[in-house]
Amino acid sequence: MKKNLLVAQSGGPTAVINASLSGVIWKAMQEEKIDKIYGAQHGIAGVFSEEFVELKACAKKQMEEHFPKKEEESILLSPFGDFLLVKGSTRQEAAYFSRLAQTPAAALGSCRLKLKNPQEDPREFQELLSVFKAWNIGYFLYIGGNDSMDTAWKLSAYCKEQGEDIVVVGVPKTIDNDLEGIDHCPGFGSSAKYIAASLLELERECLVYDTKYVMIVEMMGRNAGWLTAAAALSAEKGSIPYLIYLEEQSFSKEQFQKDVEKALQQSDQVMVAVSEGIKDSNGKFLYTYGREEGNKDAFGHSIAGGAGGVLEQMILEKMSVKTRSIEFNLLQRCAGHLLSKTDVEESFLLGAQAVELAVLGENGKMSSLRRKLSGENSFEKSSGQKDSENSNTGKSPKAGIGYAVEYSAVPLSEVANQEKKIPLSWIGKDGHSLEEEALAYLRPLILGEYSCDFVDGLPQYISFFEKSGK
Question: Where does diphosphate bind (predicted)?
């Protein structure tokens, strides 16, 4: 008997989380073993409340609304639409799944809900199984980051322990790029592209003034400095000194002030990039200087922000120079107008592969990829990360000379509650730059330009905020 597939999105939204969702729906519609395709609104919370959208029917309806079949021959495809056309989609399908893939944030909605340990209190998991049975769910795909993979892992293990024929597969997502078991995370490449491009634009802002000027820009990344590391791509192309401070290395106020003074001797304009979660040698978050640590999310993580402002005050107390601090904040994670081609295509294919894994019965796995080394660097090479299992589905389109990836699967148990940080060997000896290894890792991830669709001069998006019955 055919089973239904349920997919949900969780955690912080990204510019390409819907590319993975698009890949899931696109592939699931082709699978004979799958009957209905449901989407849970607002992550696992929507599973508990049974707020489901019948995605196959909804997609077909929206497809006709956005791209009428009678006008198919005149539909203008985006570059990603052309990519899907080559994959066997009709022109109408290519246009629709392309628009969904390049819609930022989470089209199904998201949540941050921490489930209890089923060994201590199985009631939540019993309730989830009851919902799955009521809706004939045989496959559950969860798109998310570290905490979401923890949820998927617990649920997959519980289904197995209960002898239930339900396959749970994780689909990676996080701009923080800190998931283990994968070379780089969907969402990171587009955020890195936004950061690097925006810093170069801010550099132009600095250069228009004939005065000494220090611009401080704070990036997201609670415990890992991957996003801030993207500033090294700007420094490589820029024309003023860049000082880059990552949370992987302790911060010294005195050394920072010396770094700024030295940089100002070389140039009247200086760019400072800092991770929001940077700490001093005592392990204290800089953003807590002068105030309490603040609120925490559902998983107990500190809600960071404000390190840039602290650095601004450190400069002003030591030297008389125009200084401005800004936070990229939410803008860096959902910039649909400036997407990495590499990121969109890989995210889509990771979603499609997750469906393949589910149909094959690969319970407790996460759809993954690893870099095929040929002149470019990989995280695996520098960190000693283990080879992934089940390498299978070939290579993504090239994103630069020598760059290609192999799609694979890794056990969720190796991903859940783990955190991947930048190797210390990638940080320059001066403490405020990155080595060539880091740049070689980063460069291919931002290549190629994709963008959300524009209609009448403004972005056009797709979402699934509607309900349906069983």
Answer: 12
What residues are designated binding site for Mg(2+)? 146
* pLDDT tens-digit readout, 82-135: 999 999 999 999 999 999 999 999 999 999 888 988 989 999 999 999 999 999
Residue 380 has what pLDDT? 60
Q: Which of 319, 212, 207, 303 is nearest to 258 (CA)?
A: 319
The CA distance from 223 to 98, in Å, is: 33
* Catalytic annotation present for 259: no
Region of 14 please: left (phi>0), alpha (psi -120 to 50) or beta. beta
In what side-by-side order are the strands of the sheet with 269-275?
242-245, 269-275, 213-219, 322-327
Spell out the domains of the chain, with CATH numbers in brackets.
Answer: 3-174+337-418+449-460 (3.40.50.450), 188-332 (3.40.50.460)
Question: Catalytic residue among 35, 147, 165, 176, which?
Answer: 176
Instruction: Note the helical H segments in 102-248.
Output: 123-134, 146-161, 188-207, 226-229, 231-237
Output Rg (C-alpha) for the chain, integer angstroms: 23
> How far apart are the C-alpha atoms of 360 and 8, rounded to whole Å?
20
Give me the residues paired with residue 117 across strands.
none
Q: Of the ranges 3-7, 114-118, 342-346, which one carries the lowest mean pLDDT score?
A: 114-118
pLDDT tens, 35-56? 999 999 999 999 999 999 999 9
Q: Is the pTM of this model over 0.85?
A: yes
Name beta bridge partners: 144.
172
Task: Please say whether the beta carbons of 216 and 276 come within 8 A.
Answer: no
Q: At what angle do helices 17-28 and 55-66 cross, to 10 degrees?
A: 110
The yes-or-no verdict on residue 296 having pLDDT over 60 is no
Measuring CA to CA, which residue among 15, 185, 80, 19 is closest to residue 448?
80
Binding-site residues from annotation for substrate: 174-176, 220-222, 276
Mean pLDDT, residues 363-392? 65
Backbone angles phi, psi at 180, to 5 degrees: -75, 165
